[in-house]
Amino acid sequence: MPYMLISTQIRLESGPTNVGDEFSDPAVMSYLGARKTTILGNNFSEYHVDDPPRLVLDKLEKIGFHVVSLTGVGQTLVWCLHKEKE
């Protein structure tokens, strides 16, 4: 899986950070220390970490991901990252 999205609420830029969905690479989620949660009323799961986005981005860079884009969507910041296939 070469692409990844991470996000956080602007008011919560110190964490937590959403790092994936139910189809995310389990090895990457484990490396980040993410926990899988399903919010009541949602029919999908998400992975979250307590770390702020800056620390998550640093960790992902160490395993080969780089930022492709960053955007604001309402009160949410979203980063798109890419990792070259090995």
What does this entry look like structurally?
This protein is of the alpha+beta class. It is 20% helix and 42% strand. It has two helices and six strands, in the order E-E-H-E-E-H-E-E. The strands form two sheets. The chain has a three-stranded antiparallel beta sheet with strand order 1-6-5, covered by helices on one side. Strands 2-4-3 form a three-stranded antiparallel beta sheet. Strand 5 and strand 6 form a beta hairpin. The longest helix is centred in the last third of the chain and has 10 residues. The relative contact order is 0.29.
Task: Please give the structural blueprint.
Blueprint: E1 3-9, E2 17-21, H1 26-32, E3 35-37, E4 46-49, H2 53-62, E5 65-73, E6 76-83
Subcellular location: Cytoplasm, Cytosol; Nucleus membrane
Protein name: GTP cyclohydrolase 1 feedback regulatory protein
Pfam family, one: GFRP
Portion of residues in helices?
A: 10-25%
Q: What is the subunit organization of this protein? A: single chain
- Model regions low in confidence, pLDDT < 50 over at least 5 residues: none
Main beta sheet strand tally, sense and closure: 3 strands, antiparallel
Number of strands: 6
The ordered H/E elements are EEHEEHEE
Question: How large is the share of residues in beta strands?
Answer: 35-45%
Mean pLDDT: 90
Query: Strands of the biggest beta sheet: in what spatial order?
Result: 1-6-5
- Radius of gyration from the alpha-carbon trace, in angstroms: 12 Å
Q: Alpha-carbon distance between the termini?
A: 11 Å
Shape: globular
Tally of helical segments: 2
Report the structural category: alpha+beta
